[in-house]
Amino acid sequence: MTQKQKHFETAVIHEGYDTKEMLGSLSPPIFQTSTYTFETAEQGERRFAGEESGYIYSRLGNPTVRVLEERIATLEKGEAGLAFGSGMAAVSAVLIALTKANDHIICSSGLYGCTFGLLTMMREKYNITTDFSEMKSKEALRNLIRPETAVIYVETPINPTMRLIDLQRVTEVAKEYDIPVVVDNTFSSPYLQQPLELGCDIVIHSATKYIGGHGDVIAGLVVGKKSFIDMLSQTTQKDIGGIISPFDAWLLLRGLKTLPVRLDRHCDNAEKIVNQLKNHPKVAHVYYPADDDNPDLSIMKTQMKRGGGVISFEVEGDKSRAQQLLNRLGFLKIAVSLGDAETLIEHPATMTHASIPFDVRQQMGITDQLIRLSVGLEAWEDIWADLEQALDQL
Ligand SMILES: *Cc1c(COP(=O)(O)O)cnc(C)c1O
């Protein structure tokens, strides 16, 4: 968008797209094409040589996808964006691009399960080692840095414990050593948290979650400096090939238009449900970034706009109690994933985090009686009524 930068709520709707260039079409057209024709052999030569801009082949670029990439770059306050066929395609393209054999990575002490799996594979194949840290102080972080440390990789809020990492603290240390900081911003979306503004270098999203928002697409996004995004598009994206389809890019463009409206409602509902859960006798603990009892509340206030739509809580009892709760729900859905219109509930110890060994899970705070709730867009009274009747039966 030219001239003055528009507000976030305007950018989600207009950024990166000019109807005049597309025959006035209000909705961006879906360019469902694999390849693009050249008028002459010489034009093809110039396109491949990079002397003339224009499309060549849809793995290397597509106009519908381009709109999405420009939009997400603006929303995350970055120079450029790149879209992928899944969040994991984005995570793997970034981590492989930033590392070589025998390097070292420092990660937040909670990670998405498949990211953990990717790091395990990179250790086994390329001897790339990983240290996990809660990053509670600059000293703790400095102590882990080695000459071969290539990346600091952070998720905040940490799934499913909802603890937070102070991004400003991390970037201050990283800058002393010139190490790039990558943030998986899936749980917050750019509406609630903008890591690049806090000095981080690269943001990744599983767009499957809040950005898509309707449970109907798997996709990933990356935002960073133009030089980095260009390198990514010409190396790990082009040659590994985890691209997004034009239709899925269009679905994300549609989802993005309502991101601020949806997220405000997710947060409103989550705050209400947190209050109810905290007062229920069968609930032992509630974990939510914006809750007064969250030990990281001060970090939340400096780097997040609101607490988001995901809550975790522990029921009194054991694993079977947690499973009973899920089984007694009425219209609320038992499913992994998050950020959809439907409220989704899952049991991390046996689902999303089942591949983590029991004792490591305990250290991470993922007990057998912990439940994760992605609060949807339904009336909060209905969400609570269903949860309450299931809790009352325990
Ligand atoms: C879902 C998720 C991913 C993986 O994204 P996919 O789109 O499922 O490939 C990565 N990070 C976080 C935090 C997630 O929630």
From TrEMBL:
<feature type="modified residue" description="N6-(pyridoxal phosphate)lysine">
    <location>
        <position position="209"/>
    </location>
</feature>
<dbReference type="GO" id="GO:0005737">
    <property type="term" value="C:cytoplasm"/>
</dbReference>
<protein>
    <recommendedName>
        <fullName>L-methionine gamma-lyase</fullName>
        <ecNumber>4.4.1.11</ecNumber>
        <ecNumber>4.4.1.2</ecNumber>
    </recommendedName>
</protein>
<dbReference type="GO" id="GO:0030170">
    <property type="term" value="F:pyridoxal phosphate binding"/>
</dbReference>
<dbReference type="GO" id="GO:0018826">
    <property type="term" value="F:methionine gamma-lyase activity"/>
</dbReference>
<comment type="similarity">
    <text>Belongs to the trans-sulfuration enzymes family. L-methionine gamma-lyase subfamily.</text>
</comment>
<keyword id="KW-0456">Lyase</keyword>
<dbReference type="InterPro" id="IPR000277">
    <property type="entry name" value="Cys/Met-Metab_PyrdxlP-dep_enz"/>
</dbReference>
<dbReference type="InterPro" id="IPR054542">
    <property type="entry name" value="Cys_met_metab_PP"/>
</dbReference>
<dbReference type="GO" id="GO:0009086">
    <property type="term" value="P:methionine biosynthetic process"/>
</dbReference>
<keyword id="KW-0663">Pyridoxal phosphate</keyword>
<dbReference type="InterPro" id="IPR006237">
    <property type="entry name" value="L-Met_gamma_lys"/>
</dbReference>
<dbReference type="Pfam" id="PF01053">
    <property type="entry name" value="Cys_Met_Meta_PP"/>
</dbReference>
<dbReference type="GO" id="GO:0047982">
    <property type="term" value="F:homocysteine desulfhydrase activity"/>
</dbReference>
<dbReference type="InterPro" id="IPR015424">
    <property type="entry name" value="PyrdxlP-dep_Trfase"/>
</dbReference>
<dbReference type="InterPro" id="IPR015421">
    <property type="entry name" value="PyrdxlP-dep_Trfase_major"/>
</dbReference>
<dbReference type="InterPro" id="IPR015422">
    <property type="entry name" value="PyrdxlP-dep_Trfase_small"/>
</dbReference>
<dbReference type="GO" id="GO:0019346">
    <property type="term" value="P:transsulfuration"/>
</dbReference>
